[in-house]
Write a structure and sequence with these properties.
This is 2-hydroxychromene-2-carboxylate isomerase. By secondary structure, the protein is an alpha+beta fold. The chain is built from 8 helices and 4 strands, in the order E-H-E-H-H-H-H-H-E-E-H-H. The longest helix has 25 residues.
């Protein structure tokens, strides 16, 4: 019997998407599901375009993400970005890494370096160098970025409209949305109710 698909929409500039990334993939060990990662470009207004209340919300969001990470023992450095990033190059890099079977490793490091302000996720050259540092082919990434990568990225944005995606992280299971890293426990209960827990033997395999 094939596994059910659980979609997870992410953007590398979201600290909440970072907090949700590993816990969602951990669900594959507990349940007969396959996590299908989807890139989503989070549209954010820049400073000066937001109301004062939105500015308060942005500052709170980063504080809250740091607090959430600390409460679960994660030693994450989460610094607010100095500008609004178009993360398409890094997201297409995620699609490329996925084809190499290295999405999780790639994504963990992109999140970490981005929030340390050490990776320009909006620069193709920077992403290419990063991919090469992981032992993957920069030339193949560049070719993918300029061809199928851009097309597959745009298809993911279109797919997100069908799933009514408005932010990240959002997981979609049987058409039901779960928004935010704090909804992962609720999602886990839903998978339990759906009768999808893996057997003890499978969990230990």
């Amino acid at each position: 019997m094939s596994c059910e698909v659980l979609k997870m929409y992410s953007d590398y500039k979201s600290p909440y998407a970072w907090l949700a990334f590993d816990p969602v993939f951990e669900l594959e060990k507990k349940f007969d599901i396959k996590v299908h990662w989807r890139p989503f470009q989070l549209r954010i207004k820049g400073s000066g375009q937001r109301s004062i209340y939105s500015e308060y919300k942005v500052k709170y969001s980063y504080m809250d993400a740091r607090r959430s990470a600390n409460e679960r023992g994660d030693k994450k450095i989460i610094r607010g970005p100095l500008k609004i990033f178009d993360t398409a190059p890094a997201l297409i890099g995620g699609l490329f890494a996925e084809k190499q079977g290295r999405l999780i490793e790639y994504s963990r490091l992109v999140y970490e370096l981005f929030f340390r302000r050490e990776l320009a996720v909006d620069e193709v050259d920077a992403v290419e160098r990063f991919i090469e540092s992981l032992g993957m082919s920069g030339a193949e990434f560049r070719s993918y970025f300029e061809g199928d990568g851009r097309r597959e990225y745009e298809e993911a944005q279109q797919e997100s409209q069908g799933d009514h995606i408005f932010g990240v992280p959002i997981c979609v299971f049987r058409g039901e949305q779960f928004w935010g890293n704090d909804r992962v426990p609720m999602l886990e209960r839903r998978l339990q109710e759906a009768g999808l827990p893996r057997s003890r033997e499978k969990q230990l395999a």
